[in-house]
Structures are given as C-alpha cells and as structure tokens.
Design a protein that fits this description.
Blueprint (H helix, E strand, L loop, with lengths): L2 E3 L3 E7 L2 H14 L3 E7 H9 L6 E7 L1 H10 L9 E8 L2 E7 L2 H7 L5 H15 L2
Length: 131
Amino acid sequence: MSQYSNMYKFEIDIQGNLEEVYGRIFSVLKQAGYIILSYVDVAEILQRTMQKKIDPLYILNICKPAAANEFISESYETSMFIPCKLVLHQMGENTRVSLQLISPQIETFTDLSTDVAKKYENEIVDILKKM
C-alpha cells in the first residue's frame, strides 16, 4: 500500500478493484458516522455520452453530520467547503483513493480557523490508512 500527500490532497493505493474498494470504504465510513451523499461513475457517464472508455473512476461526496454541524456552528462561510470529496480510480490491480484537503483552501481564501477541517481530514486519513 502506497500513500502520498501534498498540500491539497492525500492519496493512498489500496489493493483491490474499484468496486471492492468502494464497498470497503462505504462500510468503514458508515461505521465512523459518515454518509455518502453522492457518487458519480465518471467512466460510465463518459462511455454513455461520448463513447469514451477510461479506467474506472468514481467521485464521492461524503459528509459526517457532526462535522457539518461543527463547520456551520463555527461560521456559515465554512459550509462552502463541505462535503468532503473522495476520488476512487482503479489503476491495474489497485485503486487509488484521493481525499481533497480543504484546510489549505480555508486558510488561503478565508480568515477562518482550519481546526475543524484538519480534525476531520485527519480522521478520514486515519480511516483510509487502516484499510
């Protein structure tokens, strides 16, 4: 299992095809109190609308109601940074899972604290590292 991070994202390669990894992520996120608000099958959409074939790719919008409450309680302005975004991209026998980190955006574009964002980013990163 490889993992990467930079200022705006955390990535980890998880063994298994996209469907297997999606099922495991769905389960562990649900156990941790997260909800998958939306899921977009990008490969299916491109195939259907443009007859373009790409590697399997899902975009997920996830939210933990307690986290949303903390963000909104801090400032309604931070609500523009929720929900959290995960991208799952099958790469051979592995699936790369990327988490968009919002704390750098909050720091760059607002004068608000990043404490709540970092708290939940770290929670999701820890969940992904245990997979």
